[in-house]
Amino acid sequence: MKNEQHTRVITWERTDLCFQSSSVLKWSAFALQLEFKCGSETIHLDGFWSGDCNWTARFAPTHPGIWTWVSHSQDSAMDNHQGKIECIAPNTKQKKANKNLHGFIRIPKDEIHFQYADGEPFFFLGDTLWAINTLRCGLGEKENGNFFSWLKDRKQKGFTAACVQFFRRLNQSNEGGYPFPNNTDDNGIFTHLNSEFFKHLDTRMNHIWDAGFVVAAHPTWFGKAQGGMTNISSLDAQLITRYLLARYGSYNLIYSLSGEYQHSYLDMPNPWTRSDWQKLGAMVNKWNVYNHPVSIMPTGIQEGKSSLSSEANSGSSAGEFHQEAWLDHNWIQTGHRLSLMHLIPKTIKENRNHLPLKPVIQSEGWYEGFEDTNLFVQCNDSHIRWQAWVSYLCGAVGYIYGHGDVWGYFSKLDDPNPKDISTEKKEMLDRGLNAEGGISLSYLRQLFDQIAWWKLKPRQDLISTKGLLSQEANEWYLRVPYCAAAPGELYVVYYPLGTGKKRKDLLLKSGYEYSARWFNPRDGSFENIKMPRLDKNGKWDVPVTPGALDWVLVVENNHELKNLNI
Question: What domains can be seen in the chain, in order of their start residue?
Answer without folding.
Answer: 2-89 (2.60.40.10), 123-448 (3.20.20.80), 453-560 (2.60.40.1180)
